[in-house]
Structure formats: C-alpha cells, structure tokens
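Section 4.2 – Deliverable D4.2 (structural model, holo form)

The reporting period included a commitment to supply a predicted holo structure for the target in complex with 2-acetamido-2-deoxy-beta-D-glucopyranose. Inputs used:
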Amino acid sequence: MLYSPLFLFAVLLIPAWGAADGGSSSHHKPRPSNDPPLPPSQDCWYEQPADIDEYKPGELIRSRQIENELKPFIELGGDVSVHSVYQYLFRTTDSLGNAVAAVTTLIIPYNSDPSKLLVYLVPYDSANPDCSPSYALRSEAETGSIPGNGIPQVSVELPFIAAALNQGMWVTVPDYEGLEAQFTAGLQAGYATLDSVRVVLKEGRKIGLTKHVRYAMWGYSGGALAGGWAAELQQSYAPELRFAGAALGGNIVNTTSVIETLNGGPSAYLGFRGLYGLAKAYPNLTDWLNENLLPDKQEEFFRIATSCQFDGQGGEYQDLFSYSATAERSLYEPVPSSVLRWSGWLGFRGTPKMPLYVYKAVADEIAPVENTDELVQKYCSNGATVEYYRNLVGTHFTEVITGSVNALGWISDRLAGVTVSNKGSCNTEDVAISEINPSIVPRIGVALYFILGSTLGDELGPP
Ligand SMILES: *[C@@H]1O[C@H](CO)[C@@H](O)[C@H](O)[C@H]1NC(C)=O
Ligand SMILES: *[C@@H]1O[C@H](CO)[C@@H](O)[C@H](O)[C@H]1NC(C)=O
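Output (structure tokens):
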C-alpha cells in the first residue's frame, strides 16, 4: 500500500536528524543500551500510580530520558539520532471522566529551535498498548516481541516527524489512546492530547523550551481523530492552552460512518480495532460485545482487533458484522449507537478556537468526505478559522503524502508566528495535487522528498 522498494531504499539517505543549516553541534553519543526496551505491557515505568486521583490533569507522574536514537523507517539499519528524547507519564482523564495516566515522548533534534513545538499525532490505529508510539519509536523496540507483529505504523510516520525535526522543531508524540489503547475513544484521545501538551510545556521548560513557545498539532487519519477531539475540547478542558493551529487530514469525523465505509474492504481490520478500543473505554459496550460476539468467532475477532498497523494479522476484506449476533444492525443497537454518538462523532463538543488547516481526498475510501464537508460548514457557521483543501486527486492513502507538504508548510508558518490571512473566516478550495513538487526540497529536505516521491511511485532522480 504505502510501500515500494524505492521507499525502503530511500531510507539509507538519512544520516541524522537536526536543523539542516546547523554548524558544529555538541554530539551526544547514543547511550549504550544493552537490552531492548520492554513493550509497554511489560514495562513497569508505564504503571499508573494507585493515587492517580491526587494528580491534576497534565501533571507529571514520572519522567525518563531514553536513548537518543529512533527507529529507522523500516528494519534496514542506519542510525537516526537526535539530540535527546524524554518520556513523560502524566495524569489525564478517560472517557468516563476518571483520572488515568498516559505517556508522551518528547524528541529534540540537533540545533533545535526551542520556541517551536509540534504535537505530532501518529495514526497508530491499534487497540494494543504494545503498538503505542512511545515504544514503536524506540530504536531497539523489538517488533518481533509482539506476537506476529511486523511494521508498526510509526515507521510510516517517521518521515513526517523527521521533516519537522529537520526544521528544528521540538516534537512531542503522545500515546493519546491512553495506557489501554482505547482506539477511537474520542474523549480519551482529546483529553490525553491536551494533557500531553500541558506536561511538555511545564517539563520542557526545565530542559530549555522557551517560555513563549508556539505550539501546533498535526495529525492524519487516526491522528486527526485525536487532534479533532482535542481541538473541540480545548476551550472547555484546557482553556489556558493557546495553540497556534492544527493541521488535520484524512479526518475521522464520524466513526459509525467510517466503520461502515471500510467494512469488507482492504482496511476492514480497522473496524475490529475501533470497536474493541471503544469497548475498553465503555463497560456497557464491553458487556454488549461479550453478549453478542458469536462464540466460534471470538478468537479471530480479538486476534484482528489487537493487531498493530500493517502487521499482516488479517482482517482485510472481513465483514465485521458477520462476527456479531446482531449482524448489520450492530452499530444501531442501543448500546453501540449511544457510545458512538457520545464518543465517536465530532461536531458536538465545541467550536475550535485555534486556526485549522484541513486536507482531504474527495475520494477518501476510509472516511467519507461529506462528513468533513459538514463539519467544516458547522465550524465555519460558528466563527471558526478554517482553511479546507479538498483534493480531487487520490485516496486516503495517497493524500497522507500529497497533502503533507502543504500541511507542514502551514504549520511552519504558524510556529514562525505568521498570522493566518483568514482569521474568523473559512476558505474552502478544491485542489488537484497528485505529486510532490521538487520546489519543496528546501522546505522538507532532499531525503524526505525522495521518500515521499518514491512512496507515491515516482521515479528517483535529481529534483
Ligand atoms: C454518522 O454516521 C451515521 C452512519 O452513516 C449516520 O447515521 C449519522 O447520522 C452520522 N452522524 C452525523 C452527526 O452526521
Ligand atoms: C453506555 O455508557 C455510556 C457512558 O456511560 C452512556 O453515555 C450510554 O448512554 C450508555 N448506553 C446505554 C444504552 O445505556
């Protein structure tokens, strides 16, 4: 899908991440790591303290500095190092309003600009905690230690994180699904994203983040689900935060409609993970699932539902509803429909105050464009600031690449303090972007240009 042999090849072009124009920097040797890190389910650092109620939202519980090497894009070796990497366990709020813990990973490149912070939302799309980016990003993470696991989603995302690091941004990558990986639980994702910013703003100060740092969110697909919820919840949950903006693409606006749209298709496994992830957040949905899953299909349901992104665990072209006694009525039964309406539909929790940049393939086969059209309309009639680009070319899996360059450009402008030209109003534009234009090389770097280009199937050659 997203891979081509050239994509693998291009990985070798990347030596280290840091601002491209930097001079001689203090080089930090990777800290020796003898043993591979433990996956979150086995690593006691991730444990939630018994007195979690004593902590305030966004308050630090514990932190650690980890090796300053990140996972190469694919298992091909080649060091990718950064200045330093920190992880924070902090208090947040779950979908029922209870105090819980979550984790974020803060990555600082060489020659960084500590006045710029990107909140990068990885679409890890999994209901398995061991697929969380805080683990998958680590250079020595053993994907093999998760049974049957292949390539975690995060390795597909690293080119975008790398591009931001190459611009000198500090990048924080929250495990916004929480410690239990409650994939698609919108409230949990939004709260954890907002609290991850709180903890990084506070703790980052101790290691050089400037007081008046500008920060913005970027997420595609599952990442845009988290970012969309965070943007709606920000004014009520974290009113003190002042985001410079949020770039959200391939938007997941209505999880009911997404599950129906992708069911039976090549990405059908997302429906299994989404339903299971949501059930972890809502006990009544867990009960419903236990009552309605067909006994002879339970094992396979959970095998698919606990897989990591792109790990070949099956589920492609499966009919989710054939696993349930309620068949195609499943999502309209009282319990699932009430939970989906409560924590799976955007547009009901507030109008985002931060400027938004929205990019979407009109032919998106995962998340129908109509839902995004309607959401943008709704925000706009309530005074939001939105730039909305509807790409007439491509699908969900090409837009992640073709839309990325302009999204990152928009974020760079926001973090540089450039004010949006459409404050308080909306611009919607149909565009036709089918490739990555070489003129963006100065902005994203030659290595990323090649990676993105080859991922789309272009021919390699001098730009
Ligand atoms: C969400 O999608 C479902 C299924 O298509 C639909 O019935 C429902 O009306 C949608 N909700 C909103 C707010 O559009
Ligand atoms: C299931 O639980 C959620 C969260 O408590 C609640 O909003 C919803 O109404 C419940 N559904 C039913 C059918 O009781």
